[in-house]
Amino acid sequence: GAVVSQHPSWVICKSGTSVKIECRSLDFQATTMFWYRQFPKQSLMLMATSNEGSKATYEQGVEKDKFLINHASLTLSTLTVTSAHPEDSSFYICSAPGRLAYGYTFGSGTRLTVV
Amino acid sequence: AQTVTQSQPEMSVQEAETVTLSCTYDTSESDYYLFWYKQPPSRQMILVIRQEAYKQQNATENRFSVNFQKAAKSFSLKISDSQLGDAAMYFCAYIGGGGSQGNLIFGKGTKLSVKP
């Protein structure tokens, strides 16, 4: 089945620094990647949709300049949290549409802690 | 806009017993897919079961089955012979446009606890 590899699994960074999260589709081409944010005990909140070769589409209320998304190739999408602040601490998950028989494929998530 | 509602924030079941998790949704579309995802403490999202709206037969995957009531826009998940490993957050999700439209729309989730 389709696999999305997400790295890092967890990261701790200092306030003001930037952090890059990568999602790679290992055995299929992901022309689209969805990026979610999940707070503790809450559901997944869609942040943005990235499409290979074009600009990402951001959901209302999501700061485009803080959460930079790049979909450089058919197998790689990245989310960069710029000038991170403690309130950016959260769990970030990527997901790519695969065959609907398997539902969408999710990365394993990244726990970001900003100190 | 489509919405997914899970009215049970938490549920509990005794090991080996059966539990049903509720999900309702709102849509004007006729062609869509519904899913149940499991998120264990590892937080990896795992597909449990899926249902195509055009199929009248309820989907079944081993101990997991759904009760899909299209007219009532209801999509409940039944877990039979509950096991300790079933303890997790369960999310109901919807995608419209015959599965071709964008992202999954999630409910708020139900936390399932399994008592030994």
Written overview of the protein:
The complex is a heterodimer of chains A (115) and B (116). With 115 residues, chain A is mainly β. Chain A has no helices and 11 strands. Chain A has strands at 4-7, 10-13, 19-25, 32-38, 44-51, 57-58, 67-73, 76-81, 90-96, 105-106, 110-114. In chain A, the strands form 2 sheets. In chain A, strands 2, 4, 5, 6, 9, 10 and 11 form a 7-stranded mixed β-sheet that branches. In chain A, strands 1-3-8-7 form a 4-stranded antiparallel β-sheet, with no helix packed on it. Chain B is mainly β and 116 residues long. Chain B is 0% helix and 50% strand. In chain B, a hairpin with a 6-residue loop joins strand 5 and strand 6 (46-52). The mean pLDDT of chain B is 94. Chain B contains no helices and 12 strands. In chain B, strands 2, 5, 6, 10, 11 and 12 form a 6-stranded mixed β-sheet that branches. A 4-stranded antiparallel β-sheet of chain B has the order 3-9-8-7, with no helix packed on it. Chains A and B meet through strand 5 and strand 9 of A and strand 5 and strand 10 of B.
Outline of chain B: globular
Major sheet size, sense and barrel closure of chain B: 6 strands, mixed
Beta-strand content bin of chain A: over 45%
Measured as a percent range, the helix fraction of chain B is under 10%
Average per-residue pLDDT of chain B, rounded, comes to 94
**Biggest interchain interface, per-side counts:** A-B, 20 and 21 residues
Average of the residue pLDDT scores of chain A? 92
Q: What fraction of the residues of chain B are assigned to beta strands by DSSP?
A: over 45%
- Number of helices in the DSSP assignment of chain B: 0
Helical content of chain A (DSSP H or I, runs of 4+):
under 10%
Structural class of chain A: mainly beta
Span between N and C termini of chain A? 37 Å
Separation of the first and last Cα atoms of chain B: 41 Å
Shape of chain A: globular
Radius of gyration of chain A: 13 Å
Give me the secondary-structure topology.
The complex is a heterodimer of chains A (115) and B (116).
Chain A lengths: L3 E4 L2 E4 L5 E7 L6 E7 L5 E8 L5 E2 L8 E7 L2 E6 L8 E7 L8 E2 L3 E5 L1
Parallel strand pairs in A: 2-11
Antiparallel strand pairs in A: 1-3, 3-8, 4-5, 4-9, 5-6, 7-8, 9-10, 9-11
Chain B lengths: L2 E3 L4 E5 L4 E3 L2 E3 L6 E7 L6 E7 L7 E2 L2 E6 L4 E6 L8 E8 L9 E2 L3 E6 L1
